[in-house]
Every structure is written in C-alpha cells, then in structure tokens.
Amino acid sequence: MIRIVLVDDHPVVRAGLRALVDGQEDLSVVGEADGLARAREVVGADRPDVVLMDLSLGDGQAGGAEVTAALRALPEPPEVLVLTTYDTESDILRALEAGARGYLLKDAPPEELFAGIRATARGETVLAPSVAATLVRRTTPGAVTITEREVEVLELLSRGLGNKEMARELFVSEATVKSHLSHIYTKLGVDTRAGAVAAAIERRIIRA
C-alpha cells in the first residue's frame, strides 16, 4: 500500500483528492496539511511514501517549494509529487530544485495522477507534458535562458516595484538591478518594463 499525505490549503480540494485516491486499492491517504507546520507534523507522524504538494498555500504561508525543501530535509524524507495549476518556468524550476520528484497539473486525468503517484513512490521522475516541454526548451542549444535572479526581478517588476524597491527586496544595489534589467530586455527582445513583464508571462516564465 502506498501511503500518501495531501498538502493543499483548500479543504474542498483535499476532500476531492482523498475521495479520488482512496478509491484505488493500492493507494491510501493517511494525512492532510494546509501549510508547512502541519505538513511537518503529519509527515513525521504518518511516515508517508508520497506527498502530493500544491505550490500556492495561501497568503503569509511558505509556498509549496519551501515546504518541499523542508520535507526533503527530514531524516527519512518522503518523495514529493507537485500537483498544481501553475506550469510557469519559475514554479517548475523552484519545485524541482527543492527536491520534488515530479510535477503534474491539476487538470491531469485521474489515471495519469494515479500512475504518477505510483511512479513517484518507486523513485521515478514524473512530469506533465507541458512541464517536460518547458524543461526541454530551456536546455535546447541557443535557447534564451533567464537566470533565477532575473526571474525574481521579473516577478518584482510584475508587482510594479521601482528600481529602488527592487534593490531593497533583493539586497543589492540599484546599479545591479539596472544591470539585470538590461540583460532581461536583451534576452526577451523588449525595451520597456511593461514589455518585459508581458513577454515573461507570454513565455510562461512567470505567472500572470
């Protein structure tokens, strides 16, 4: 029996997933959590094989990537399978770098989800087709690659922050922010802040 913990801040979503997953003879939901503190508690008590992890866990809470990293740092860590609505490059990379074994989207058919859970429990990598395509594009020779710090700048740009505010958020100088912006404009083929945000959203580098 594959033991599963659900981490999602929406009770209705957790209830739906529990009903779906528990309908499989070899799968069993043994616990639920809505954030980091509860996830640590439940995982420590119930020792699941797989954690199904949402990425957006509500305002003021650690995101799914941070929770994933915390769970993977435990002495006997569970495998983590991200199940989310987001397929932007920044979300994918953060989740995988945090230690997630796989990344599926919430519109996946039930059978794909079940197969993904089983594969994750076996230690195999599971990726939604659009996620795999994003990673392939990123590693294609000659492809424009946005660095993690440039993604952070783009996310701050999308929030309407100015150079001084971005420098404060990133703990760097305004000159460094301007340098990042220059590189971003060149890579995305734009010459304005609004153009950079629009291009990043269109290319699914950051969320809308």
Write the layout of secondary structure elements.
Layout: E1 2-7, H1 11-21, E2 27-33, H2 36-46, E3 50-53, H3 64-72, E4 79-84, H4 89-98, E5 102-105, H5 110-121, E6 126-127, H6 129-139, H7 148-158, H8 163-170, H9 174-188, H10 193-202
Parallel strand pairs: 1-2, 1-3, 3-4, 4-5, 5-6
Helix pairs in contact: 2-3, 3-4, 7-9, 7-10, 8-9, 9-10
Could you walk me through the main structural features you see in this protein, from its secondary elements to its overall organization?
The chain is an alpha/beta fold and about 210 residues long. Strand 4, helix 4 and strand 5 (about 100-105) form a beta-alpha-beta unit. It starts with a strand and ends in a 6-residue tail after the last helix. The protein has ten helices and six strands. Strands 2-1-3-4-5-6 form a six-stranded parallel beta sheet, with helices on both faces. The protein has two domains: about 1-140, Response regulator (Rossmann fold); about 150-200, Arc Repressor Mutant, subunit A, CATH 1.10.10.10. The chain is about 50% helix and about 15% strand. It is elongated, with a radius of gyration of 19 Å. Keywords: DNA-binding, Phosphoprotein, Transcription, Transcription regulation. InterPro entries: CheY-like_superfamily, NreC/VraR/RcsB-like_REC, Sig_transdc_resp-reg_C-effctor, Sig_transdc_resp-reg_receiver, Tscrpt_reg_LuxR_C, WalR-like. GO terms for molecular function: DNA binding. This is Response regulator transcription factor.
